[in-house]
Design goal:
Bound molecules: NADP nicotinamide-adenine-dinucleotide phosphate
Number of strands: 15
Order of helices and strands: EEEHEEEEHEHEHEHEHEHEHEHE
Radius of gyration: 20 Å
Number of helices: 9
Distance between the termini: 16 Å
Structural class: alpha/beta
Largest sheet: 7 strands, mixed
Helix content: 25-40%
Length: 332
Amino acid sequence: MADRNLQVVLASRPGGRAEESNFRLVEGEVPEPADGQLLIRVKWLSLDPYMRGRMNEGKSYAARVELGEVMVGGTVGEVAASRHPQFGVGDKVLGSQGWQRFALSDGKGLVKLPDPRLPETVWLGAAGMPGVTAWMGLTQIARPKAGETLCVSAASGAVGSVVGQLAKIAGCRVVGIAGGPAKCDYAVKELGFDACVDYRAGGLDAALKAAAPEGIDVHFENVGGEILDAVLRRVNPGARVPLCGLIAGYGGTDIPIRNVFSLLVNRVRLQGFIVSDRMDLWPGAMRDLAGHVGAGRIRYRETIAEGLEAAPRAFIGMLQGENFGKQLVRVA
Ligand SMILES: NC(=O)c1ccc[n+]([C@@H]2O[C@H](COP(=O)([O-])OP(=O)(O)OC[C@H]3O[C@@H](n4cnc5c(N)ncnc54)[C@H](OP(=O)(O)O)[C@@H]3O)[C@@H](O)[C@H]2O)c1
């Protein structure tokens, strides 16, 4: 039987938490490339927290997905047919083909996998967008120095795990914050963090104090809410806080910052950033990260959902912490 295309489209906008009914599977023909186009067979789809924001009606830093449109997403795929001068059948490509099995491309924003020696999925994780996010927050905002204490939330995740390992390479004491003993064990025993606090266990303030007895010089924030408040009680004067994500609020929960006073008295520099603002820095960052991965200095873990049909459930699970490391979907 000939291949059929399968797409996951946005069926409705979530009121709070995303639900499976917000997505719809659509089957269709595999499209044919016109002159100057190529057809990509998606092999791997990356699921990332930012996609939750794209499902909303309101304005954000990037365009929303319209109802009935294919969900956006980073992908690794293989060229299945080509009428494009720079891509041939069999080329492995990194792009943003979204939640679908097959996609046409005019080549814009598409790159051939930079180093065939590394696993394909690393370009969606530690050496891809999440890794570059970690790299950017550290090099452009935090600038950690040897001997400083760096704290990172969602520490076992795609971004957090790279933040902590890059900070170890820079000579910092690294404290992770993660949900549950398994994720904390992993951060310490496999990623080499100095300590990890399980925020689900209760007693966050005391645990942070024990893990960072000399206070916190850099906090890389991925979560917000109670975690940010607890860290702000432990920051040192002159602390830097790259504000990368606020996942505790992505389901619609209000997450005010309660310890604003600490920002003032400690002269804290808190700065939000979006990784796509500095595309000029990506190639160098990816080379740097790939080098660390290839040399075993950066390790990573993946959670893989099987088949595009499993993507909505896996995405919702990731927003609730069910993933362990980079969440991917094996599409083909
Ligand atoms: N600014 C940018 O350009 C940029 C780019 C990429 C990613 N980000 C942000 O970076 C953050 C991490 O992304 P990622 O791709 O690396 O995802 P991830 O950490 O691999 O997965 C999300 C993790 O967030 C944690 N989490 C979910 N809800 C939470 C809550 N209420 N309280 C505490 N932790 C919660 C869960 O880990 P636990 O089980 O440990 O709670 C979950 O596994 C997200 O906020 C994302 O939006 C920002």
